[in-house]
Structure formats: structure tokens, C-alpha cells
């Protein structure tokens, strides 16, 4: 018997060695294919193979090198992506130093980036193979491949529907897609035959469908009322110079400086743009959107350890249903990437049965990734883990994961980066925001000092239509369930016992949510909807916990089926209202650009949602190419100033003044008129709207450019 066991072990060792050998051959083949497509600039192949290789392989090789234990394909994908992106930013930062050390003029170019990435990946691959020759490689079992192929039709329909809606104004495919997503959630949740292994794939399918149903309505940049124009402006500076200078290019401007300090929107997209030969705007629009779709997948993988697979799936759908996930956040690329690092960092913190040294390495890498991706997320994370540490000390229940060492390390790396890069713009902004909140405390008892969204969330703002009222009722129900789930969790009357560190984190997040409502000015720092979206990373499972305990209280026993039915009854209408589906069917005012662009006002489409067509962009590029913008005074609407002139024209907002009915021209002045001004004859500022005829001084200017929809006027006043 002993001999037989030895023989079996030898056989398994040989099989694992063979599998590891085949795996390394696959990686090398993908590396060769990627390099060939880049060097010979093969269209499509360069973008698809290159993105796959640089986004997943470096991290996967590092996982093998560290011999980390991955719980399934979802966790493998999350860690591979997070480590790969961190690797790209670090190697880009290292190559960037060639400028300072060896006076290389354009270090961030293909001639340096491609060999450096190849050498690093090849070296790590060989070392990983030598360490893992006798270890079992990743085993990918595909459950019901025919079902997976059918599910892939949903994101395909979403993309086709978005393009059709954007070009032809026909949203029928998108409406069908939204119904299909709701039906998929309902069937998967209630079915007793649903395969838990399909949950991660379905979460990813829904995430991709929702994100691209918004993004693909136009091939141009979509602002969604956020800061994507500033991100593109900062990235273009780095791309043009092929070098990232850690000094703020516009000293004194905190807005530019904060964004410029983030490697997620400067060095990383520049690397992708150069290696994949892809316009940086498409990098943000297509590639970053895909990376963002991994966030709900990571959250599902995190939550299933605490609330089980089905409840984690329902929580992930709730998280994705909240509108900012597929609207507002898509206009903030640095937050999209920051959220990926946040969920990866939370996962590694609560990862059980893992070697401490390996957890430390991953924590360090993901912490760096979060710090250089999004300053606000990093600050919120530091606040949360600091409070968790304090609570654990007060309750005398020391945390195994959130330790003093980790908190201090995160604090040091965060403030070191924010103080010594981009002329301390991020650190100065942190102080400015703190002073703003302090000054607002005088209006503590004035409800009007809160954001309208806060009052709306508390039910203190009257709904404009009956459909808005119904929508808010379902939103209030989800909020109530979160509160019920929180109360039951505190009282330990739930069958789900959260790990104490995670419970502390839930407790802190609920306190923070209360502070956002109570403290004037706090929510306005980043918008209450974005804050709530972030806090759902932790508290979303409370919604289904609350539903489960209500059913348990009514039925006197646990009933998974009835809990699932209750969540379907609540979340499906919530989802249909949040996406704008109901508003579109009832012909009510709607904020979904993809569903209702054809019936929105031009002001809503262009000024608020940041949609810009070719006429906007061609005029902005002409102005940038033909005029020395530093030697003239430029006037335009605030929306054009921060969107197409900044993103497509590359014109610093400090060179552009806001156009109004009292504008007084300098010696040489230019007025940029967008299609809203020319066609609709309307000029929109932040607080006022004028008819173009109210700006009579425009009649004295010469028209130096027109494309039928946009115009550029010039006046020389000696």
C-alpha cells in the first residue's frame, strides 16, 4: 500500500509538472503574439491581445510566484488584474525616472516600455515555473458552456442597443435588454436549480451590460456631469511629453494638480495608449469601463464569505442597480480604477488561510494602487480602517487584519505621495475641504444647508411626478431594509455572523452615512450619491439580511425562498426605475442618456450630461491648433469650458472665461459658440440662461470659423 501511494504521488507530481509546463507555454505564446501584434501594428489584434496580456498575465504570474491560494476563478481574475495594473504603474513610474537620471527626453515611449515589461514578465514567469513545477495549476471548469454562450448575448445586445439608440434614436433593443437583465436576476435568484458557480459570471454579465449600455451611446467622451474632461486633459499632457513630471503643470490650480497626481489617469492610460496604439479617450471609454465591471464581481467574491453565495449575488445586483454605477461614476475614471483596488484591498484584508507575508505584499501593492488612483477613496478608506482600529482597541477585541502597522503604513504612503507630488495639490485640497466642512457647521440646524439629494433621500423633497414618488418608495424600502439588517446584526438575531472586523467596518460605515446626513457640507465634498455608492461596498448585504430577518420574524422560521421572492419584488422595480426604463415607457422626464436622448432638451444632453458631437469637437480642435490660446482671451459656456475645449482641445480652463451678457472684451478676444448657442440660440451659465440676442456685443465680432453648428468669433479692440 505504501508503494502504491508513493506511485500515485509521483504520478500526480508528473501531471502537475506537465500542466505547469503547458501553462508557461501558453503565457509565452501570448507574450509572443502580443509583441508581434505591437511591432507590426496589426489592427484589432494589437488592442485585444495586448490588453489581455498586459492586464491579466503580469498579475497572474505574480500570484504563481508568490504561491497564493486563490478561491476560484473570480478571485484569480480580481487579483491578477489588480496586481497587473499596479505593476504597469510601477514600471511606468520607474521608466519615467530615466528622464531625471539619464536625461532621456521621452522615457514613456514604446522603445522603453515594451522591453521593460517583457523582461519583467518573462523573468517572473520563469521564476514562477521553477517554484511551481509540482504544484497544481489553476483549474478552470466551465459549467454549462451553452448557457454561458446564451448569457453573452445580453452584453452584445446592450452594446448594439446603445449604438442604435445613439445613432437612430431607437431604444427598443435597450429596453428589451433591461427587461432581460431583470428577468435573469429574478430567475437566477428564485431557481432552486441555479448553479452557484454561475453567479460570478452572471454578475459580470450584468455589470458589463449596464456599463456599456451607457458608454456606447456615443463614440465620443461622455461627461455625465463629472470630471472626465480634466482627466483627459491631464493625460494628454503626459502623453504629449512622454514624461510625467511630479510637479503640478499649473501651480496654484488644485483641480488640475489633484488629477495630475493620480497615476491612474496619467501614466497608466499613457502606457495603454502607446502599447496598444489606441486613442487615450477610447482607453478611458472602453478599457477602463471593462475594468470597472470587475468591481461587482470582486464584491460578490468578498460578500459570499460572510453572507453566502445567494445573498452575495442579490447584494451585487442591488449594488449595480443604483444609478451612479452606470452613469455618474463612468465620468470619473480615477474613481473607477480606485474602486477596483478598494475591493481588492478589502478582499486581501479578509482573506483567510493565507500566509502573512503574502498578504502583506498584496496589501502593500493594492494600497499603493489605491493611493495613486483616487485621493478621495484613499482618504475614505484610511478614515474607515482608523475607526475600525480604534473600536477594536476600545472593545479589547484586537483585529487580525486591520492592525496598527497596516494603518500607519497606509497613512505614510498616502500622505507622502499627496504631499510630495503635484506641488502638494491633493494635500492642500484635503485641508481646503476640511475647512469648508468646519465653516458649514454653523448651519447645523438648517436643513437647507444639505444637498438636495440628501433631502430627497430623507423624503423631505416633494416628487415632481407620481412615477418619481413610486421610484422613491422602492428606494426608501431598500434604505429601511439596510437599517433593519443593521439592527438585527447588532442584536445578533441573525443567522449570519459577520467576522468581527467586517462587523466593525459595517458599524463604522453606518456611522459615516449618518454623519453625511447630519453634518452640513460634508456630503457636498464628493456628492452624496457617490458617497452612498462607496458605502454600499460594505453595507449592501445588510439589505438582504434585513429582508431575511423580516421573513423570519413573520414566518417564525427561516425561509430562503420567501426571502428571495421578497428581494425580487423590491429590487426588480427598483432596478427598472433606476435605469430609467419606467420613465421612458411612461414618457416622463428621464436622466438616462441611452434611453431618452431622443426626447431630452439640448441643454440637458449637452450641458448637464456632457454629450458632445463631432461639431463640438472639430471646433475645439480648430481653436487649439490655429490660435495661440495664451495670447487671447477666450469666452464660452461653462460646459464647453470644462468639457470639449479641455478634453479635445487641450486648452487649460484658466485660459477660458465664462461667457455672459455682461462680458467685456480685452484687446484680442475669441468667443467659442457650441451648437446649443448656434442652433438653439441659448447661452447657459451655472445660474442663468440667456437668449443669444441678449449678447448684442457678438454682432460686432467677426466669424473666423464655422462648421454649420459651432462657430468661433474674433474681435480685436485696440
Report on the architecture of this protein:
By secondary structure, the chain is mainly alpha-helical. The chain is 65% helix and 4% strand. It is built from 31 helices and seven strands. The chain has helices spanning 2-39, 45-66, 72-96, 98-102, 110-131, 145-151, 153-168, 172-190, 199-215, 228-241, 254-260, 267-276, 280-307, 309-321, 333-349, 356-371, 375-394, 404-420, 425-440, 452-457, 466-491, 500-518, 528-555, 560-578, 581-585, 593-596, 602-608, 614-626, 638-642, 644-647, 675-678, and strands at 633-636, 656-658, 668-673, 682-684, 689-691, 702-706, 711-716. The strands form two sheets. The protein has a five-stranded mixed beta sheet with strand order 2-1-3-7-6. A hairpin with a 4-residue loop joins strand 6 and strand 7 (711-716). The N and C termini lie far apart (103 Å). The model has no long low-confidence stretch (mean pLDDT 89).
Show unreliable segments: none
- Cα-based radius of gyration, to the nearest Å: 27 Å
Number of helices: 31
Q: Structural class, judged by helices and strands?
A: mainly alpha
Strand content: under 5%
End-to-end distance, in Å?
103 Å
The mean pLDDT is 89
What strand line-up does the widest sheet have? 2-1-3-7-6
- The rough form would be described as globular
Number of strands: 7
Helix share of residues? 55-70%
Largest sheet: 5 strands, mixed
Amino acid at each position: 500500500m505504501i508503494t502504491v501511494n508513493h506511485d500515485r504521488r509521483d504520478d500526480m507530481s508528473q501531471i502537475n509538472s506537465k500542466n505547469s509546463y503547458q501553462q508557461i507555454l501558453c503565457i509565452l505564446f501570448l507574450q509572443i503574439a502580443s509583441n508581434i501584434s505591437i511591432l507590426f501594428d496589426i489592427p484589432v489584434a494589437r488592442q485585444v491581445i495586448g490588453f489581455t496580456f498586459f492586464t491579466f498575465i503580469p498579475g497572474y504570474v505574480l500570484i504563481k510566484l508568490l504561491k497564493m491560494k486563490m478561491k476560484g476563478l473570480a478571485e484569480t481574475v480580481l487579483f491578477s488584474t489588480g496586481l497587473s495594473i499596479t505593476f504597469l504603474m510601477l514600471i511606468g513610474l520607474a521608466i519615467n525616472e530615466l528622464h531625471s537620471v539619464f536625461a532621456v527626453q521621452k522615457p514613456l515611449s514604446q522603445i522603453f516600455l515594451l522591453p521593460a515589461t517583457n523582461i519583467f514578465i518573462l523573468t517572473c514567469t520563469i521564476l514562477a515555473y521553477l517554484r511551481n513545477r509540482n504544484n497544481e495549476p489553476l483549474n478552470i471548469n466551465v459549467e454549462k458552456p451553452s448557457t454561458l454562450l446564451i448569457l453573452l448575448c445580453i452584453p452584445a445586445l446592450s452594446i448594439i442597443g446603445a449604438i442604435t439608440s445613439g445613432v437612430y434614436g431607437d431604444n427598443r433593443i435597450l429596453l428589451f435588454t433591461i427587461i432581460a437583465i431583470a428577468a435573469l436576476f429574478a430567475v437566477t435568484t428564485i431557481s432552486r436549480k441555479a448553479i452557484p458557480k454561475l453567479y460570478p459570471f452572471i454578475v459580470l454579465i450584468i455589470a458589463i451590460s449596464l456599463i456599456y449600455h451607457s458608454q456606447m451611446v456615443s463614440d465620443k467622451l461622455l461627461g455625465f456631469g463629472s470630471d472626465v474632461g480634466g482627466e483627459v486633459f491631464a493625460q494628454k499632457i503626459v502623453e504629449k511629453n512622454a514624461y510625467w513630471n511630479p510637479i503640478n503643470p499649473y501651480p496654484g490650480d488644485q483641480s488640475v494638480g489633484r488629477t495630475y497626481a493620480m497615476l491612474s489617469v496619467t501614466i497608466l492610460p499613457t502606457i495603454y495608449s502607446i502599447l496598444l496604439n489606441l486613442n487615450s479617450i477610447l482607453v478611458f471609454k472602453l478599457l477602463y469601463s471593462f475594468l470597472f465591471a470587475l468591481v461587482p464581481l470582486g464584491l460578490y467574491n468578498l460578500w459570499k464569505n460572510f453572507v453566502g453565495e445567494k445573498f452575495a449575488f442579490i447584494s451585487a445586483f442591488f449594488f449595480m442597480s443604483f444609478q451612479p454605477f452606470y452613469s455618474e461614476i463612468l465620468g470619473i475614471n480615477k474613481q473607477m480604477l480606485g474602486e477596483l483596488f478598494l475591493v481588492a484591498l478589502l478582499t486581501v484584508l479578509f482573506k483567510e488561510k493565507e500566509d502573512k507575508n503574502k498578504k502583506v505584499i498584496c496589501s502593500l501593492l493594492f494600497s499603493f494602487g489605491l493611493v495613486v488612483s483616487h485621493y478621495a477613496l484613499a482618504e475614505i478608506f484610511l478614515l474607515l480602517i482608523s475607526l475600525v482600529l480604534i473600536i477594536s482597541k476600545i472593545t479589547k477585541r484586537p483585529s487580525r487584519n486591520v492592525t496598527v502597522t497596516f494603518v500607519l503604513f497606509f497613512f505614510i504612503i498616502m500622505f507622502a505621495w499627496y504631499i510630495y507630488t503635484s506641488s502638494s495639490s491633493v494635500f492642500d485640497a484635503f485641508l481646503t475641504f476640511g475647512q469648508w466642512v468646519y465653516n458649514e457647521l454653523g448651519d447645523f440646524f438648517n436643513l437647507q444647508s444639505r444637498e438636495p439629494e440628501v433631502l430627497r433621500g430623507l423624503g423631505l423633497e416633494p416628487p415632481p411626478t407620481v412615477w418619481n414618488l413610486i421610484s422613491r418608495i422602492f428606494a426608501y424600502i431598500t434604505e429601511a431594509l439596510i437599517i433593519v439588517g443593521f439592527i438585527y446584526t447588532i442584536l445578533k438575531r441573525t443567522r449570519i455572523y459577520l467576522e468581527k472586523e467586517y462587523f466593525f467596518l459595517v458599524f463604522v460605515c453606518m456611522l459615516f452615512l449618518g454623519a453625511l446626513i447630519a453634518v452640513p457640507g460634508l456630503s457636498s465634498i464628493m456628492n452624496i450619491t457617490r458617497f452612498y455608492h462607496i458605502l454600499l461596498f460594505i453595507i449592501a448585504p445588510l439589505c438582504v439580511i434585513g429582508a431575511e430577518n423580516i421573513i423570519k420574524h413573520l414566518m417564525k422560521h427561516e425561509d430562503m425562498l420567501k426571502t428571495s421572492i421578497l428581494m425580487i419584488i423590491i429590487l426588480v422595480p427598483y432596478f427598472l426605475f433606476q435605469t430609467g426604463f419606467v420613465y421612458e415607457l411612461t414618457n416622463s422626464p428621464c436622466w438616462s442618456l441611452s434611453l431618452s436622448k431622443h426626447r431630452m432638451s439640448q441643454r440637458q444632453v449637452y450641458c448637464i450630461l456632457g454629450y458632445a458631437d463631432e461639431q463640438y469637437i472639430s471646433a475645439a480642435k480648430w481653436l487649439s491648433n490655429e490660435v495661440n490660446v495664451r495670447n487671447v482671451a477666450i469666452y464660452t459656456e461653462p460646459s464647453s469650458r470644462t468639457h470639449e475645449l479641455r478634453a479635445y482641445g487641450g486648452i487649460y480652463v484658466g485660459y477660458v472665461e465664462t461667457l455672459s451678457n455682461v462680458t467685456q472684451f480685452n484687446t484680442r478676444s475669441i468667443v467659442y459658440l457650441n451648437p446649443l448657442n448656434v442652433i438653439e440660440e441659448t447661452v447657459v451659465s451655472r445660474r442663468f440662461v440667456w437668449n443669444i440676442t441678449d449678447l448684442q456685443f457678438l454682432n460686432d465680432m467677426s466669424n473666423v470659423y464655422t462648421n454649420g453648428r459651432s462657430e468661433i468669433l474674433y474681435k480685436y479692440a485696440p
